[in-house]
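Bit of a strange request maybe. I'm writing a small parser for C-alpha cell strings and I need a real example to test against, not something I typed by hand. Could someone generate the C-alpha cells for this chain?
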Amino acid sequence: MESIIINPIGVIHTPHHDIKNMPIQPIAAEGIKGYIEVLPEYAEGLKDIEGFSHLTLVYRFHKIDGHKLVVIPFMDTIEHGIFACKSPKRPNAIGISTVKLLGVEGNIVHIEQVDMLDGTPLIDIKPFYPRYDNRLNAQIGWLEKNKDLPLEKLRSDERFK
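Reply from user aminoacidic:
Good idea to test on real output. This should exercise your parser:
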C-alpha cells in the first residue's frame, strides 16, 4: 500500500503544555479556550465558517511516540483494542475533537473546549452538522458500563506519553 503524506493547514494553540491533567474529551474542557492559527495560504478557506457554532478538528498527536494495539483507556481499568478506544497511541496518531467556535479574525480561529496540546498540527477543519453528525440509538460497546462516569472531572495521566 502507498504511503500517504498529509501536510498541516495550521497549528492549534492551547493552554495545555503537558498531557498530565488535560481534559480527556472536549465536552470536559468547557471554558478552556484556545485558537487555531491557519496558515496564510489556507485562510481563504475560512470563508463563511463563522455561521457555525461548532467545528470538528482533525489533528496529529504530535507528542506521541509509537503505537499500541491494545491499551487501557482513561475510562476503564481493563485493556481494549485501540480501534475500540479514543486513545492517542494510534498507528497514525490522528485525533478528532468537536469544539465551540467563538470567532474568526483573519487566519485566527478562536475556539473553546480544547482538549489537545499546545502546538498541535491541524490537518483539517470540518463544520459540525447536528443533523448529520449525531446518531440516535447508537451503541457504545464497552463504554456502556461507564457511561455515567463524570467525564467533566476525568483528566488524563501519563499512560500515553
